[in-house]
Design goal:
With 505 residues, the protein is of the alpha/beta class. The chain has helices spanning 14-17, 49-53, 88-101, 111-119, 133-156, 171-184, 198-207, 220-235, 269-278, 297-300, 312-328, 341-348, 373-379, 381-389, 402-418, 428-439, 494-497, and strands at residues 28-30, 60-61, 68-70, 76-81, 106-110, 161-165, 187-194, 251-255, 260-264, 288-292, 334-337, 355-356, 422-426, 455-462, 465-472. Helix 4 (111-119) packs across helix 5, helix 11 (312-328) crosses helix 12 and helix 15 (402-418) packs across helix 16 (428-439). It starts with 13 loop residues before the first helix and ends in an 8-residue tail after the last helix.
């Protein structure tokens, strides 16, 4: 795994990046040629960032039909650059996951996968030799097919960002992609990963590439040898992004796995978010432990929200959690809680320093705070039904939605990406949002992720995802998970509305 150097700069914020974009110019004019939803039940909040990002703004025709004007909010094409085994696909997948999580419709287009789908069987590095005309034609065909899919996604399917994941190591290839984007009214942002550390490259090959379908029937030594020769096929023609020759392009250049960065011409909000994210991630081996607070007094009564303390069983869980964490033997473990009593009381039993984060507070249920579901159905049946119809976007009167909560939690996600081993003691809705980020869950799946009390989830980032271990500590607790009922009509009966209600005392 790649390691972050100790002199890595501190947490970057969007304000830090404002200077980068100060002299940028966002609009573009181009010639059109062929190359190969908002919150449902919000109240008085005005236009949200997601609505701005998901806007339908595309290229608008002027009176001159041969020209189109690329609007400020036009789609973005992210293009990776770099030799094989430099972490391009890792970056692509993380970026895609992050942008989708914050509400920007994003899809990854991996040219290597197009090639595998086309060829089915990989023989050797000879396919990638620059003098292999047949291999070159196939690679060009696959790249064109991927770009056609990019165009369809961004122009016809409502996509806002497409990630074109390929080597793109020559200036000629990058200019071809740039012209394709210009002709279709897309902005382009290049992401180059440069690494000369042989240990890092070797680790990446062993941990990622050997699991590729290309090397299913090869032993490790043969696979490594073949892949190193594949890299050599690209090295002679590789042209890195240049500060002078490419000064008019928008890009970030990541050197030696985040030891240094070069950022050029950030044009808009989306590009600044991309830079902000990429400058805050690392790949040091670590684990993130997520759990809810111990069972609370209001949990026992079946009431949502509030700020009650732990029940007797909740205190027992806190003791068991302390024993579990001690058994992990993590000397540098950081512990985070919300500012609510039940998480603080849980952390105090660990007898270790902990930090309180306001952003980790439970979702604000507004006028429904400390109410039972039965009471909400009785006094606010319309609200109860509307929430079941769209639980992610529904906002409690005078409270929050899951969509709001995701925006609130973004600073915590950024800091989690920078940290190593962390235990986060939080709440059901908060834990669902964090899990959805790490496990790449959709907005529809997020509000129904199961996060039971007295259970620890150990998340260990791996090459292209996250390994999850669920550890149930032996302390009983009430069930607080309510599934979406089949009948979500506003005129449903009380029985239908409460059909999936969890048991409580």
């Amino acid at each position: 795994m790649w390691r972050r150097e100790p002199n890595t700069p501190g947490l970057l914020t969007p304000m830090t990046l404002m200077g980068v974009a100060a002299n940028s110019k966002g609009a573009c004019t181009n010639t059109r040629e062929d190359f190969v939803s908002g919150p449902a039940h919000s109240r008085g909040e005005g236009c949200r960032p997601q609505q701005m990002m998901r806007g339908s703004s595309r290229c608008k025709h002027t009176q001159n039909l041969s020209r189109t004007v690329c609007m400020t909010n036009c789609p973005t094409l992210i293009v990776t650059v770099g030799l094989p085994a430099r972490g391009k696909t890792y970056i692509s997948k993380k970026l895609t996951r992050y942008l989708n999580w914050i509400g920007v419709p994003t899809r990854e287009f991996n040219v290597g996968q197009y090639r595998r789908d086309y060829m089915k069987i990989y023989k050797s590095f000879e396919f990638f030799r620059p003098d292999n005309e047949e291999g070159l034609k196939i690679r060009q065909h696959c790249a064109s097919a991927a770009l056609n899919d990019v165009r369809q996604y961004l122009s016809d399917e409502g996509g806002q960002v497409a990630v074109f994941d390929a080597t793109n190591t020559t200036r000629e290839r990058r200019m071809t992609i740039f012209q394709f984007a210009k002709q279709n009214g897309f902005k382009v942002f290049f992401v180059e990963s440069v690494c000369e550390d042989p240990h890092v490259i070797q680790e990446n090959i062993v941990q990622v590439k050997l699991g590729s379908p290309d090397y299913t029937n090869c032993n490790t030594e043969e696979a490594v040898s073949d892949f190193m020769k594949r890299i050599q096929c690209y090295e002679n023609s590789y042209q890195t992004l240049d500060e002078v020759l490419d000064r008019d392009l928008s890009y970030i250049k990541i050197m030696d796995v985040g030891r240094r960065y070069l950022v050029n011409r950030v044009l808009d909000h989306i590009q600044s978010r991309i830079v902000y994210y990429l400058m805050n991630i690392h790949i040091t081996p670590r684990s993130i432990y997520l759990c809810r607070h111990g069972e609370s007094e209001l949990n026992i009564k079946g009431r949502i929200g509030g700020d009650s303390g732990l029940s007797a069983r909740g205190k027992e869980f806190a003791k068991l959690l302390s024993q579990f964490i001690a058994a992990q033997g993590i000397s540098d473990l950081k512990v985070w809680t919300s500012q609510m009593k039940r998480t603080i009381q849980t952390a105090e039993a660990l007898d270790v320093p902990y930090e309180q984060w306001k952003v980790l507070n439970e979702i604000d249920a507004g006028v429904c705070e400390e109410m039972m579901y039965e009471e909400i159905q009785e006094s606010h049946p319309l609200e109860f039904a509307l929430r079941d119809q769209d639980k992610y976007r529904y906002r409690y009167p005078k409270g929050e939605s899951y969509e709001d909560l995701v925006q609130r939690l973004e600073p915590a996600i950024m800091e989690l990406e920078r940290q190593e081993n962390v235990l986060v003691i939080c709440h059901q809705a908060v834990m669902r949002c964090l899990l959805a980020y790490f496990l790449d869950k959709t907005a529809e799946e997020l509000p129904y992720l199961k996060c039971p009390l007295h259970t620890v989830l150990k998340l260990t980032p791996v090459a292209y995802g996250c390994k999850v271990e669920s550890i149930c500590l032996s302390a009983e607790a009430v069930n607080t998970h309510r599934e979406r009922p089949e009948n979500v009509n506003v005129h449903r009966t009380t029985e239908d509305a409460l059909r999936t209600l969890p048991d409580h005392f």
